[in-house]
Amino acid sequence: MTTVKACLFDLDGVIVDTAVYHFQAWRRLANELCFDFTEHQNEQLKGISRMESLELILNWGGVSLTEEEKIAWATKKNQWYLDLVMQMTPNEVLPGVPDFLKSLRENGIKIALGSASKNSKLILEKIQMLDYFDAIIDGNNITKGKPDPQVFLMGAEATGVQPTECVVFEDAVAGVQAAKAGGMKAVGVGSADILTEADIVISTFEGFSVEKLLQM
Ligand code: G6P
Ligand code: MG
């Protein structure tokens, strides 16, 4: 049995599926700049910061903008995204997540958020999950994005737990790499074909338990 004293969760794609809203808002931006991109390309944006995502998208469209224009478009995209986020409800929490977090608590395991998003607190509020977290580290706290381990190392520190006693839950390749770079175990949430560097991969939290976590 391994010792697990803290679990660190990515937000988008792990706690809740906001990727669809990011996609809608980024696509609107692309369309206003007279190009389009696919859902497949959208996969590359998972776990990546807002400005890095914008750079990738502009590249796909062959559009070059000044720094000021980039900031203006990123701000517009975020506003469109927030219009969608404001309509979110607790029904959008992914299956099995609340029960798993409750059982972590009951077993004295700390819970932290490690997300690249600058909107994480608002999202957690909308889905009524804010109270589950002992620490929240997000895009407002970090200087280096995933696959750099900074976000998770800060999460470990905030919960007072050594990285080797932390398990990270991630849906993005860059996020799994960040966990491993931080010396942590990683549970991939999604497809084993994509999250090949994770220690184990689950497709949903339904059926996952603290017992299984400790057997990793
Ligand atoms: C998460 C998502 C990314 C998003 C990033 C920044 O990592 O997976 O798709 O770009 O957060 O989100 P924000 O809400 O700050 O624009
Ligand atoms: Mg994610």
Quick gist of this model?
With 216 residues, the chain is of the alpha/beta class.
List the defining traits of the structure above:
HAD_sf; isomerase; PGP-like_dom2; binds magnesium ion; 6-stranded parallel β-sheet; 216 residues; alpha/beta; binds 6-O-phosphono-alpha-D-glucopyranose; EC 5.4.2.6
Written overview of the protein:
This protein is of the alpha/beta class. The protein is built from nine helices and six strands. A six-stranded parallel sheet has the order 3-2-1-4-5-6. Helix 6 links the parallel strand 2 and strand 3. Helix 1 crosses helix 4 (67-85). The termini are close together. 6-O-phosphono-alpha-D-glucopyranose is lined by residues 12, 22, 45-50, 53, 78, 115-119, 139. 6-O-phosphono-alpha-D-glucopyranose binds next to helix 3.
